[in-house]
């Protein structure tokens, strides 16, 4: 078997065998297949596609390039939650706290932000003292005692993905449904949970722009999760404007806390409750998602989810006092405000532009080795559908480098579109695939 024949076969539109897929993944991970041949195959896959069987084999082959975590020492049905990536998406910490406070063990591995999308691990690191790396026994003991732990994904999980993702990123082959599916599901399946709730996003702030493509991605991920014996559900959700008002690490964690205090934005609150509802249902702590929603809402209203967040922060070495004193978060030295030029209604806020502007203010990284400013980001003052007057505040940009902050503010201003009629604002969850 050799790479030339495999590339040629896919270029001609034929299905690859399990052995050919394994040969490619193992050879590339071990460094025996060069980047130029792997790139050629990725591009052939992008144009000629993989069928469902090939995608399953690719996912399995990638999963087997690293550790498969054993969570059997944790009692109960462990439920994972994963978003395909968005702007202002801080739902993991909210839905995780809600589900854990309803008795569902959540043992989660998360990633860092890259490009215009954020990552849960960066957000968590804005909490003073909080550790995102724990020994396996600490992780398991925290989930058994508190019900929730979130740690950074180790290099040993689906090792092939790290190398392949970096290559896809520079060869314009990220946004292929089979490649995204195998990348995400190889890591999810290796992370050891029994059930998975996926938040598959579509819109201008997501990898999949169209609703139809997001549904195809959701169907494929659910199919593969189930084929591997994991109860999997995908929510197809709208990512056309940032989620909530806050974009950027410490700003988002403050919004998480506000949401768990019952004072959060409506979109974030509803989406988090719905994600938690499915986590509670898959964790068999409710007989239906509807009952799961009621339980999650109860945990929000009676403060038990907020208490769970505090226990989780303390369990991972962080200072739970941040819940009462936001001044304990990293503080920005510079701010720049964006004002509206016109009267009307906010017709749209392009999520990708806000995500990029937030990254440029210092909140995100362009390459995986960049340092980030945990205090940087953007706080929207308006959301789609709200009225605005000329001279009124649209958003504030924060950071520590005034040139970056001012430039990011100019950029972010272009994300807002004002119109004369009131746009329709609909629920974010458009479809559930199970
Ligand atoms: N997130 C991932 O982990 N992989 C992808 O391919 C896309 C989003």
**Radius of gyration, Cα only, in angstroms?**
21 Å
Mean pLDDT across all amino acids: 94
Helical percentage: 40-55%
Number of strands: 13
Estimate what percentage of residues fall within beta strands: 15-25%
For this structure, what is the CATH homologous superfamily of the largest domain? Nucleoside phosphorylase/phosphoribosyltransferase catalytic domain
Largest sheet, order of strands side by side?
A: 1-4-5-13
Q: Which SSEs are present, and which pair or pack?
A:
Elements (H helix, E strand, L loop, with lengths): L2 H9 L6 H13 L4 H14 L3 H12 L15 E5 L7 H11 L4 E5 L9 H5 L11 H10 L2 E5 L6 H12 L6 H14 L4 E8 L8 H17 L3 E8 L7 E2 L1 H12 L5 H17 L6 H13 L2 H12 L18 E6 L4 E6 L1 H13 L13 E4 L6 E2 L4 E7 L2 H12 L2 E4 L9 E5 L1
Parallel strand pairs: 1-4, 2-3, 4-5
Antiparallel strand pairs: 5-13, 6-9, 7-11, 8-10, 8-12, 9-11
Helix pairs in contact: 1-3, 2-4, 2-8, 4-9, 5-12, 5-13, 5-14, 9-10, 12-13, 15-16
The structure holds uracil.
The site of uracil has 9 residues, from helix 9.
């Amino acid at each position: 078997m050799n790479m030339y024949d495999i590339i040629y076969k896919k270029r001609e539109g034929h299905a690859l065998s399990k052995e050919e897929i394994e040969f490619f993944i193992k050879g590339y991970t071990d460094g025996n297949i060069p980047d130029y041949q792997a790139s050629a195959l990725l591009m052939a896959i992008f144009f000629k596609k993989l069928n469902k069987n090939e995608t399953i084999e690719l996912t399995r082959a990638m999963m087997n390039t690293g550790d498969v975590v054993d969570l059997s020492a944790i009692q109960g049905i462990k439920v994972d939650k994963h978003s395909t990536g968005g702007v202002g998406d801080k739902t993991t910490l909210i839905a995780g706290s809600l589900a854990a406070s309803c008795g569902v063990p959540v043992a989660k591995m998360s990633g860092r932000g890259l490009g215009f999308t954020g990552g849960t691990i960066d957000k968590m690191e804005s909490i003073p003292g909080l550790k995102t790396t724990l020994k396996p026994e600490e992780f398991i003991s925290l989930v058994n005692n508190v019900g929730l732990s979130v740690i950074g994904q180790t290099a040993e999980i689906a090792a092939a993905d790290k190398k392949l993702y970096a290559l896809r990123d520079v060869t314009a082959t990220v946004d292929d449904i089979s490649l995204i599916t195998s990348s995400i599901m190889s890591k999810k399946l290796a992370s050891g949970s029994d059930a998975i709730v996926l938040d598959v996003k579509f819109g201008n702030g997501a990898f999949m722009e169209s609703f139809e493509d997001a549904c195809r991605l959701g169907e494929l991920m659910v199919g593969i999760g189930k084929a591997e014996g994991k109860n999997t559900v995908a929510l197809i959700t709208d990512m056309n404007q940032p989620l909530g008002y806050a974009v950027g690490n410490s700003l988002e964690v403050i919004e998480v806390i506000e949401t768990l205090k019952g004072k959060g934005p409506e979109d974030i609150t509803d989406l988090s409750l719905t994600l938690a509802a499915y986590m509670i249902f898959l964790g068999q702590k409710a007989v239906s998602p509807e009952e799961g929603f009621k339980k999650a809402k109860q945990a929000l209203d009676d403060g038990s989810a907020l208490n769970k967040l505090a226990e989780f922060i303390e369990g991972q070495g962080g200072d739970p006092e941040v819940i009462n004193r936001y001044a304990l978060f990293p503080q920005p030295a510079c701010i720049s405000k964006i004002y509206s030029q016109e009267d009307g209604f906010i017709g749209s806020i392009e999520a990708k532009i806000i995500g990029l502007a937030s990254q440029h203010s210092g909140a995100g990284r362009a390459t995986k080795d960049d340092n980030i400013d945990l205090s940087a980001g953007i706080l929207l003052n308006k959301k789609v559908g709200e009225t605005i007057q000329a001279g009124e505040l649209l958003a504030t940009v924060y950071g520590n480098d005034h040139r970056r902050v001012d430039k990011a503010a100019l950029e972010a201003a272009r994300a807002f579109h004002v119109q004369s009629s009131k746009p329709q604002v609909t629920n974010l969850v458009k479809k559930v695939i199970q």
